[in-house]
Amino acid sequence: TYPRLTDMVGGGPFNLKAGDWTDDTAMALALADSLVECGRLDEQDLLARFSDWWRNGTYSCTGFCFDIGTTTAQALSRWERTKADHCGSSDPNTAGNGSLMRLAPVAIRYHDDRDALRDAAARQSRTTHAAPEAVDACVLYAEMIADAIAGARRTQVLAQRAGAWSGTIAAISAGSWRNRPRAEINASGYVAHSLEAALWSVGRTADYRGSVLLAANLGQDADTTAAIAGQLAGALSGVERLPAEWVDRLAWKDRLVAAAQSLLAP
């Protein structure tokens, strides 16, 4: 076990410095660059960037890939062999959180075009995670983040959402997370657990700092749970209300800010 987090700190299983980040942000940055440079969701370009990160450490703030999910690694191996657009397994047992953790660039880019938003959210997922729950989690969460970016109130963003969602995602969209006690929240790598834990963390707190710390303190797949919660919490808070001392400590801060600005450019 680790002591309760109250601030951005270093250490952890990879002995990182405060402000360093893991595969969640590395893959999000690759997705952001691909969307901007291609002007659209291009699976081949995206998978090439993911593979370059995995093999060569591109997009890693440490210079090498030190953390990658099993489902993602299997998909990238498949892409290197086949060059298929969608290399994620559709097996329901592979519904991990690896495509949800990197989602934010899609929501930023397409927040004002819902058809393009849903399409890109699903397709970017299928590059590595094609299980129905993984795909639907991305589409649902992209809609929530996009609503927050567009200025919707917190209650609107977190409201029940209609849709033919797969498996447990349907219950989550209906608000299954709302009144659950901490003991019933599971922060594993299963995408439904991650989505529920992220929404629970955002729904029980009033600001970005509180949401991310609550998510991280759930333990288990802590970096990814916090990354997922942070996407929505950040969109709800707005950049001006992010903790300045955290932003200043970020590895590659200027590059991350530039990527976000490029995604918003017309």
Task: Using brief descriptors, characterize the structure shown.
single chain; 266 residues; mainly alpha; ADP-ribosylglycohydrolase fold; 13 helices; globular
Structural features, described:
The structure is a single chain. The protein has 266 residues and is an all-alpha fold. It has a single domain, classed as ADP-ribosylglycohydrolase fold (Orthogonal Bundle), CATH 1.10.4080.10. It is built from 13 helices and no strands. It has helices spanning 23-38, 43-56, 70-82, 104-109, 114-126, 132-149, 154-157, 167-173, 191-203, 208-216, 222-237, 244-249, 253-264. The longest helix has 18 residues, at 132-149. The protein is globular. The model has no long low-confidence stretch (mean pLDDT 98).
Question: How would you briefly describe this protein structure?
Answer:
This protein has 13 helices and no strands. With 266 residues, the chain is mostly helical.
